[in-house]
Amino acid sequence: MNLSKLAFFEGSSEGFLKALDENAHMKKCKKGKVLFLHGDPAEYFYIVKSGWVKLFRETLDGAQSISDILPAGSIFGETALFENDTHPYSAEIIEPSEIMSVPIKFLKDELESNNAFTLKMLSYMARHRRRQDIEIEHRAIQNASQRIGCFLLRLVKKDHEGTIIIHLPYDKTLIASRLGMQPETFSRALSKLKEKTGIRIKGATIEFDTLEQLTSYCCSCCSSEYPCKDLLAVE
Amino acid sequence: MNLSKLAFFEGSSEGFLKALDENAHMKKCKKGKVLFLHGDPAEYFYIVKSGWVKLFRETLDGAQSISDILPAGSIFGETALFENDTHPYSAEIIEPSEIMSVPIKFLKDELESNNAFTLKMLSYMARHRRRQDIEIEHRAIQNASQRIGCFLLRLVKKDHEGTIIIHLPYDKTLIASRLGMQPETFSRALSKLKEKTGIRIKGATIEFDTLEQLTSYCCSCCSSEYPCKDLLAVE
DNA sequence: CGAGGGTTTGAAGTGCATCAAATAGTGTGG
DNA sequence: CCACACTATTTGATGCACTTCAAACCCTCG
Q1: Which of A207, B85, B103, B233 has its CA 20 to 30 A from that of A184?
Q2: Where in chain A is the domain with CATH 2.60.120.10?
Q3: What is the pLDDT of residue A229?
Q4: B59:A129 CB<8 A
């Protein structure tokens, strides 16, 4: 992966890209590794080169709430810049991953000196905001099966042909919490989705013939019509 | 209200403020007025000078999901800049309000020419993102009564002394939908909150003696401890 | 005073959570 | 390559929170 090819770094200066190259540190991480905790002082921001990372927070009661689950190509930890250099969530590796860390100072410098980059980041942030908005809507309006269906639709490759085959990218338990439901509910809701739409399920592989099977069941109670203007892409 | 005093316009150039002054259009709006609809092309962004504005979206099924309810001093419609000049939500006046509209072009120009302003807006957007994050957490983890309690806490003035008196800023029905619940649930959950915490309720006025009455019931199942670092302020 | 919306109350239903236990799947060491 | 250990997933039974539908009540404002 070439950093300069990530949408996030579009518009960044030569100097910044060079600084990234020279100061980025790559490491392989095992499942379960915690990179930082909510409230930790932030010296670095991170880029997922491969694998999956979970962002989450915990309450005093011990309940966990998942903020996001990030695929390769994602940036995280950068929001500390706007939170007094403190991470507003915890980050944990959930699949074997390669993670790059970059001193957040470089990002700050680039933002302060390169308006084109700042604009890109603003637009990136606006996109995220929009996604969250839709997330809130989904949680309020869609039932468990519909949320799963919508999640599956986001996994469909754009250039699919014929039978659509999807592999769930990480544990069902994690998908469940990502979608704000219990594992048991996920299991039952997926069965219900199968009944309602005729999708075929074998373990972590899911098959169906046309998008319509899912969209007709899931998208009628959403304010953005499929294909959701690419707002919701997972990877 | 002086525009230059709004946090949103901190860092903006003299020229921009002048352009705002000269091109802003003020209008009084009655309850129920719809300013624009989700999907409308956006020529203007707006500033709430007084009153309250509801941002929302509707699904094909006719269900409505409330995105935000904005107090005086808020900006809205500006996100269209990042959505191909199309509004990503509808806006409706919910209390008699004074609304300023400004051609979005001026905002765009200022963003493209003034990095200090772009940075401010980035930070503003990051704040919004954080609030949404917490919103999602609350919906997932808090029960109806706790969400109401948290909402009340956000209405408490910072310089309160002695008995704390709160006036609900708009209809209970609207608060209910803002918090993602039915009016009936709101009514019952508020009674429950009264039982649990000893707050006193008279119509739209709520009284209690110490914040602790509410915080001990509401904040234990939240990842941000009260006073939530001012993240959640409503006005 | 009366109309209409906002609010509360009651009764019944639904969806998801929880607890418990069985089953499937995966990786490990022998 | 197999048996075991451990985790992920499914299934069943039950409970609870919130919703829904219906109706009464209350409040405000013309």
Answers
A1: A207
A2: 3-113
A3: 65
A4: no
Best B40, B136, B216 member to test A by mutation, with max A CBs in 10 Å, is B136
Kind of pairing, strands B164-167 and B44-58? unpaired
CATH 1.10.10.10 assigned to B142-227 = yes
Which tokens is A113 given? 């000196």
List C-alpha distances in Å: A113 to A3, A117, A189, B82, B124.
19, 9, 50, 22, 19
> Residues spanned by CATH 1.10.10.10 within chain A?
142-227
What pLDDT, on a 0 to 100 scale, did the predictor assign at position A231? Answer: 66
- Could you please state the CATH topology (level 3) that the domain comprising B3-113 is classified under: Jelly Rolls (2.60.120)
Give chain B positions within 8 Å (CB) of A130.
79, 82-83, 88
pLDDT of B235 reads 47
Cα separation, B194 vs B181, in Å, equals: 18
Closest residue to D27 by CA to C1' distance? B203
Regions of chain A where pLDDT drops below 50: 235
Ranges in chain B, pLDDT < 70: 1, 229-235
